[in-house]
Amino acid sequence: MLGIELATAAFLPAAFVALLAGILSFLSPCVLPIVPPYLAYMTGVGVSGLKARERSAVLPAVFFVLGLSTVFLVMGFAASALGRAFLQYQDILARVAGVMVIVMGLHFLHVIRIPFLDHEARVDAGRQDGGAFGAYVLGLAFAFGWTPCIGPQLGMILSLAATGGELSRGTALLALYAFGLGIPFLLAALFIDRAIGLMNRIKPYLKLIERIMGALLVIVGVMLLTGAFSAFSFWLLEAFPGLALLG
Asked: Of 9, 36, 216, 231, which sees the most CB atoms within 10 A?
């Protein structure tokens, strides 16, 4: 029973980190600026056409998010399966993952620079015309093509998934990451005029957002390296005994 309770408590901080990482990924300098052009590309009209409501971007955005979510869910399942296969080496795996996540955080903080993380391997999904299938394929391409760009955030969540040892837990973490990244896309498509205005106001703060993401990566990396996630989980169970009922 204690193992189930501990797994439940351990999932909560990891779930919060996954959701926050998805939102910060959307706000990152390599994703936020391309949102309006991507929405325009998926609908087959220009950005001005979107603002004039010549064609709705909502349905393509839904299938775009489904496409990128498909890739992330498969990644989460694979990472969890890998962690489960090497369950006896979980401590070593967690420490190695912690070091890697810290290094990626230092990249975002500009303490060190990792050149390949500054580029995207974009995949051409062909000209889109507002079709659901084309938007889904574009979502798949986005998830694969922007992996170097959002790799540090994604790597952090995959590390949490791999060190969890449960297939459902790892898949759920990547689902939350996809939710945090995908829902803003849907909101932008639904409220395109307001979204473009808001994005323009956020752009001056993109470097700050990047550094916040870097700090989050370093914190999570240190927690993985030191085993603090387990300690925090015990504290959660002691402070909030009701969490045991969720198990």
From this structure: 9
